[in-house]
Amino acid sequence: MFSKKRKLQILIILFISAILYFSRTMFVAGILMVMAVKGYTVITARTVKLIALLLLSISLLYVYLFSVKLERNAVGFNGFLYKLKMAPGEIFISKINREDHRKLWDHWRAYEASRAITLMQENPMSFLVGTGLGSEINLKFYSPLGDGKKGLKYISEIHNGYIFVFYKTGLIGILFYLFFLIKLYRTSYFQNNYISNLISGIGLFYFFSSLIITGMFNKRDIVVLVLGGLLFFKSVENQLNERK
C-alpha cells in the first residue's frame, strides 16, 4: 500500500516531530513508532537483546541526569531534561507534604492518583464497578487549575489513565481497557506489515501514555484519530485479502 520511499518519509516526519516537540511523551512515542515500523516490538530473541540495550541506555541516561544539576525553572532542552529526570518520581512518589507546593508539582500525577485510590477506599464496592463517569476527585485543597481565580478543589480527570479508568469504572472497566490495548499490540503478531506494525506501536504508546497523560482518554490526543484511520485501512486490507 505504501512504497519504501513513502514509508521512510512518514517515519522521518513522525520521529522529527516527536523530538522537536520537547515532550517526554512524544519522545518515547517517536522511539516506539520507529521500533514498531521496523518490527522490533514483536518479541523475538533479537528484540529481547534490543530491549535490553534500550533499558541499559535509559539507566545510563538517568545516572547522568542525577549526576548533574538541573534547574527546576529551566526552559528549552534543559527544561526537557529536568522533566525527564523527575518523571519516575512524578508518577510513583505520592507521599509528600501537600503544603510544599514545589515538591507537590514535581509529583502531581502521583498525588492525583493517590487521592483517587483514597476516595475509593471509602466505598470498597467502587473497586469493582467504579465511582461513575460523573464522579469527581477531592484534592483537599484549591489547586491553581482552571480559569477561576480560586482554583479547583474537585477535578473529574487525572493524568494517570489507568487510575482514571479504574476510578470511574472499577476493575471491570480497567480489564476491558487493558484487553483492548493488548489486542492492538498483538496486531503485528497476526500480520507483519506496515499498517499492522503501526497499530501495534500505537497500542504500546497507549500502554506508556496511560501512565502520564490519561492515554486514550486524553481530550487533546490526536493519535486516536490516526489509529482510527489505520484500523479502517486494516479492515479494507483484510476484505481484499479475503476476496483473493
List its salient traits.
244 residues, mainly alpha, two-stranded antiparallel sheet, 11 helices, 2 strands, 65% helix, 5% strand, globular
Layout of strands and helices, then pairs:
Layout (H helix, E strand, L loop, with lengths): L3 H17 L3 H14 L7 H21 L10 H17 L8 H6 L1 H14 L4 H4 L7 E7 L8 E4 L5 H25 L1 H4 L3 H16 L13 H21 L1
Antiparallel strand pairs: 1-2
Helix pairs in contact: 1-2, 2-10, 4-6, 8-10, 10-11
Task: Provide an overview of this structure.
65% of the residues lie in helices and 5% in strands. The chain is mostly helical and 244 residues long. Strands 1-2 form a two-stranded antiparallel sheet. Helix 2 runs antiparallel to helix 10 (194-209). The chain is globular and about 65 Å long. The two termini are 16 Å apart.
Apparent shape: globular
Number of strands: 2
Distance between the first and last residues' Cα: 16 Å
Which ranges are low-confidence, i.e. pLDDT below 50, for 5 or more consecutive residues? none
Q: What is the residue-averaged pLDDT?
A: 82
In which order are the strands of the major sheet placed? 1-2
Summarize the structure.
The chain has 11 helices and 2 strands.
